Amino acid sequence: MALEDAAKDVDGAFTRKDLKGMSYEATYAGALSFLRRRYTKDLSGVDLAITGIPFDCAVTNRPGTRLGPRAIREASALQVFDPPYGWDVNPLKDLALVDYGDLAFDYGHVAKVPALIEAHIAGILARGTAVLTLGGDHSISHPVIRAHAAKYGPLSLIQFDAHSDTWADDDFERIDHGTMFYKAVKQGLVVPDRSVQIGIRTVNPDTLGVHIIDAPEVHASKATAIAAKVKAVVGDNPTYLSFDIDALDPAFAPGTGTPVSGGLSSAQAMAILRALKGINLVGMDVVEVSPPFDTTGATAIAGAHMAMELLCLFAFNKKARG
Q: Is the preceding omega at residue 209 within 30 degrees of 0, hence cis?
């Protein structure tokens, strides 16, 4: 569709008929669907659904990630005019994508939210549709992973993060964005010796056997070397990739709840993701974007770009695996 025809397809989030293809609407107008995809609950023929979990009641420092899905959607409008640079796949053309909207929940019943998240994701997976989840604080990854593990079995985890999020917490009723991967390992959802955490730069004496590639190692290495190390760990095991935006240095992503200096650049993170081509990626999320702490919008832009890289990984795998 040419630019001069854009007026004929106003608000493609509601009017788009083809689930594949570029979009040429004005970036500053229209509905805030992710990548200008159609808003729908109809998953017929859909390869992958994007959904938001606007929950931030489990943070240890600054809140605001409940506004993350909306901000990432807005920032993603910048990415629909051209194919993603540096890839030989284009998820906008190669995948049937929809925006499934956000999970609805009662903020007054926080303890019920994890079960609602799990059911929400499980309902999408049951239709044979993959999911990219936009957070929300990082605690949402636990019930999302639970839904994926129910379908695929114990998962490898690739986690980009400043924090390991495996601090001990044997109260499995607690909801905490720093302990959910401890619980995921203890519950058998994640296989620690087939999992890798990238960008870590906070102290945790017990990482439960998860492989750590800390931020200094990333800075001292080439992206291809980091990716090769990750691939050697996860193998062809079904893999869930969780990208906490605080994996990036606060210079690139100040809008997050627990920023830690010394992190990855956007370029480093994207290069590693691109070098992970071929992993058996079954699920993914981008979390911890907190727009109130970034007046420039740079953090949401980074989040939208990382989400696009994840879609490219998924599209590459789908094409390569037939």
A: no
Show the domain range for 251: 3-321
Q: Write a three-state SS string for 182-225.
A: HHHHHCCCECHHHCEEEEECCCCCCCCCCEEEEHHHHHCCCHHH
Which stretches of the chain are DSSP H helices? 12-15, 68-76, 91-94, 113-125, 141-152, 180-186, 215-219, 223-234, 266-275, 298-321
Whole-number Å distance between alpha carbons of 211 and 195 = 6
pLDDT band at 149 (very low <50, low <70, confident <90, very high): very high
Antiparallel, parallel or unpaired: β 130-135 and 196-200: unpaired
The CA distance from 162 to 193, in Å, is 19
Is 48:37 a contact under the CB 8 Å cutoff?
no
**Which uninterrupted H or E stretch holds 130?**
strand 130-135
DSSP bridge pairs for 39: 99
In this structure, what CATH number is given to the domain that contains residue 105?
Answer: 3.40.800.10
| 175-233 tens-digit pLDDT | 999 999 999 999 999 999 999 999 999 999 999 999 999 999 999 999 999 999 999 99
pTM for the predicted model, two decimal places:
0.95
Instruction: Quote the number of domains for the chain.
Output: 1
